[in-house]
Write a structure and sequence with these properties.
The complex is a heterodimer of chains A (105) and B (163). Chain A is of the alpha+beta class and 105 residues long. Chain A has one helix spanning 2-19, and strands at residues 31-41, 46-51, 56-60, 66-69, 72-73, 84-92, 95-103. Chain B is mainly α. Chain B has four helices and no strands. Chain B has helices at residues 12-36, 39-74, 81-109, 117-147. The longest helix of chain B is centred in the middle third of the chain and has 36 residues, at 39-74. In chain B, 39% of the residues are buried. The model of chain B has no long low-confidence stretch (mean pLDDT 92). Classes of the chains: A alpha+beta (105), B mainly alpha (163). Chain A binds chain B through residues 2, 5-6, 9-10, 12-17, 19-22, 24-25, 27, 43-46, 58, 60, 62, 92-96, and chain B through 71-72, 75-76, 78-83, 85-86, 88-89, 92-93, 95-97, 99-101, 103-104, 107, 112-113, 115-116, 119-120, 123, 127. Chain B: Residues 13-153 form the DUF2231 domain.
Chain lengths: 105, 163
């Protein structure tokens, strides 16, 4: 019984460790990719896009990033988790600069 | 002329990381030493280790917070944000491990597993050793971001104009 309590306590103590294991992001070549917005971090104007081939792209918007929807300029708050997007990225070193982001729906 | 250094948000991170680094590494050593000591000396060093752990764990989360603030600026400028992401993930693992050790400390102080105090102490120390490993790795990655990629650093012109 005591041993069970010890094991439970140990599990509780290390459980956050597994929660803390976030996802790694990927680097792709410059080009255009379609995917789904997995996460939006508005305060950092940053999005995570999961591509069709299961790559996770972390994109920080720059002053030069264009954001459009139906051919019109869109605002960052129109990007939602689950939105389908097409992103044109430029690879600089291992950094992916989003050149253009189109909201597809 | 650039803005005053302290007002740059990304510099709050180096301002806050060094306390948890020193507190948590010292806490791990102290807790390990306390395990092999006996009697009053063991009790004393266990308490010292506990205080360092509490201060260090709180400091670690503050460092995670300031690191998150710095990320938005630094990730847009460095050449390898993947390294920054590894730094972030390692720091979260480190902070959670020390938080786990802190939870075990609370369990000990509440006398919740009274007859297994030694087991809890060993377990706490082992988790802290794991946390210390992540702490060293996190620090190494952080140093790479700064010293190899100039993350958060204002690089002066080669002629030092304006300084």
């Amino acid at each position: 019984m005591i041993m069970k309590k010890v094991m439970m306590t140990a599990l509780v103590a290390v459980a956050p460790f597994f929660y803390g294991c976030g996802e790694k992001t990927d680097v792709v070549e410059s080009g255009t990719y379609q995917g789904v917005v997995e996460e939006v971090e508005a305060e950092k104007t940053e999005i995570y896009v999961k591509t069709a081939d299961d790559k996770l792209l972390e994109l920080y918007f720059t002053d030069k990033t264009s954001l459009t929807q139906n051919g019109q300029t869109a605002t960052f708050d129109q990007l939602k988790e689950g939105s389908k997007v097409e992103v044109q990225v430029e690879k600089v070193g291992n950094r992916l600069d989003p050149v253009a982001v189109k909201i597809m729906e | 002329m650039s803005e005053p250094t302290i007002l740059r948000t990304e510099l709050w991170h180096p301002l806050t990381v060094h306390f948890p680094i020193s507190f948590l590494l010292l806490a791990t050593v102290v807790k390990a030493v306390a395990l092999i000591l006996k009697g009053e000396r063991s009790v004393f060093w266990q308490k010292v280790g506990s205080f360092l752990l509490v201060l260090g764990a709180a400091g670690a989360w503050l460092a995670v917070y300031t690191g998150n603030l710095a990320e938005g600026t630094v990730a847009r400028k460095i050449c390898d944000p993947i390294l920054l992401k590894s730094h972030e993930l390692a720091s979260l693992n480190m902070a959670w491990l020390f938080t786990g050790a802190f939870v075990l400390e609370i369990v000990q102080h509440l006398n919740f597993l009274q007859k297994k105090v030694m087991v809890l102490r060993v377990l706490t120390t082992l988790i802290m050793v794991g946390g210390a490993g992540y702490l060293i790795y996190t620090s190494h990655l952080g140093a790479q971001v700064v010293y190899e990629q100039a993350g958060g650093v204002n690089v002066p012109p080669s002629d030092c104009a304006g300084l």
